[in-house]
Specification:
4 copies of one chain form a homotetramer.
Chain A (H helix, E strand, L loop, with lengths): L5 H11 L1 H4 L4 E7 L2 E6 L14 H20 L5 E10 L8 E10 L3 E10 L8 E9 L2
Antiparallel strand pairs in A: 1-2, 2-4, 3-6, 4-5, 5-6
C-alpha cells in the first residue's frame, strides 16, 4: 500500500463524514509507519473557564489519533470503531493547539492497540494527557 | 447540606460555564445520594454515519455524570476536575437520548471514584457503554 | 448447555492447570447467568505489612472472576485469555477472605466484557476494589 | 537526594517486606531519573500451560516497576500504594525473564502517574504488555 499522507486522511474524512466538514478544528497533522498525529486547532469558544482545553476535546483528539493510526494498518476504507479508551489527565491544558500522537503497541488482523501522548504545540516536554485505546474492524 | 436537585445543578452550570448555555444538549436528569444521571438530548446533526452517537459524546456524558456526582459529595462550589476516565464501548448507540448514570464507588476527602453505565432512553437492558473515572478537587 | 456449577469449574481448573492444584487459595464460589464469584481464601503468609491483601492478589481475583464468567458464555473447553484489565483500589483490604464478583457487560461471539466488584467477606458495603476487563477466545 | 541504586531498592524491599525475601523472583534491575525497571526471574513452576507468563505476574511486574519509580520521586521511606493500574496484554509472553520499564508521566506532591512497557529479556521490539497506573502517598 502506497504510504498514506495526512492530506489523504483529511480529504477522506471530509468526504466520508459530512459532519466533520464543519469541524475543521481537528486535522491529521502527521502520519507514518506505526504512528499518527491529530491536531486540535485552538478555538477560544470551546474553552472552559480559565482557558482550559476540556476533557472531551482531549478525548476526541486521542480517539482521532488512534483512528488515523488504524488507517496506516487497515487502510482508509476499513470501517473501524473504538473499542475502549482510557485517558489520564496530567497537567492543565491551555494556550495553543493540542497535538495528540498515537503510537502503535500492537496490530492484529482485526484490531489495533495504541497509546497516545498529548501536549500543547510548542511544549512537548509537558504532556497534558496520556491515553491507551483499541480500535477494531466492525465487520 | 440540603439535598441538591437537578434544577440546582442545571442552573449552576449555565451560570458558571457560559459555553454550556449554548450546549443544552447535556443536562442533569436525576441526582441523589451516591448517584447522578446525565442526559444527552438526541441531536441528528451530531451523529456519525448510520445514526451512531459518537465516542466523544458518550465520553462527555460519562464525564458530566461523574461531575454531577462530585457535587453531591463536595457541593456545587467545589472546583473539581477529571483525573482520569476509562470508557468501554459495548454496543452501537443510536435512536434516542443517551442517559449516563454514575454511581459512587468511593468518596475521599479530595477525590471521588465512580462507575457509569450508559444506555439509550427506553432501552436500559442494553447498555451502550461503561466507564470508570475519578474526579479530584483542584486546590 | 446444562448450567455450570462452581464444582464443575473448580474440578476443571485443578485438572487442566496443574499449578492451580497447589494454589487452592482461589476457588470459584458462585456462578450463574451473567455473573461469577471468585474467592481468595485468607492466607496470612501472603499479606503485606499491616495485614493488607496485596494489589496482585486482588488483580488475580478479578481476573479469575472474569475467567469463570467466560465459562458461562463460552463453556469450559474454550481457551480464553485476558485482553486487558483495569483495577481501581478503593479501600485498604484486610481481615478475611476476598470475594470478587464479575458481572457481564456484554458477550460477543469471541469476547466478553465485564466489571468486577471485590470486598472482604462479611463487609459487602465497603468494596475494596473495582475492575473492568475483557476476555477473548484465542483461536 | 543522592541517586538511588537498584541495590538500595532491593536491600530496602527485603528488609522492610519480609514476605518479599522469599519472592526473589522480582528484583529492581535499573533505576534513574524518571524511570525504573523491574525484572521477573523466569520460574518454570509459575508458568501457565504452554509456558506462558501469567497475567497476574505481568501485573505484579508493572506494579513493582511503578513502586520503584515512586522511590525516585518520594524516596525510600515514603509509604505509597497503588491507586489504580490498567494493563493491556499485547502478545503471548514466554521464554525468559520479564522486564517491565516504568516511565514517569507526571509527579505531583503526593502522587505519580506512569506508564510501563514489558517485554521478554532479549526481545524488546515485541512488548508483551503495556500498563498505566498511579501511586499515591498514604498519609
Amino acid at each position: 500500500m502506497k504510504a498514506l499522507t495526512p492530506r489523504d486522511v483529511n480529504d477522506f474524512v471530509v468526504q466520508t463524514y459530512p459532519a466533520a466538514a464543519h469541524d475543521l478544528r481537528f486535522t491529521c497533522d502527521e502520519l507514518g509507519a506505526g504512528f499518527a498525529v491529530a491536531r486540535w486547532h485552538h478555538d477560544a469558544a470551546s474553552l472552559r473557564p480559565g482557558g482550559l482545553i476540556s476533557g472531551p476535546i482531549q478525548f476526541a483528539a486521542a480517539d482521532l489519533a488512534l483512528w488515523y493510526l488504524s488507517f496506516t494498518v487497515f487502510g482508509l476504507a476499513a470501517m473501524a470503531l473504538t473499542t475502549d479508551l482510557h485517558i489520564v489527565f496530567l497537567r492543565p491544558a491551555r494556550g495553543g493547539d493540542l497535538l495528540a500522537r498515537a503510537e502503535l503497541l500492537r496490530a492484529g488482523k482485526r484490531r489495533i492497540s495504541g497509546r497516545v501522548l498529548a501536549w500543547i504545540d510548542g511544549d512537548p516536554g509537558n504532556p497534558v494527557s496520556h491515553a491507551t485505546g483499541t480500535y477494531a474492524l466492525t465487520t
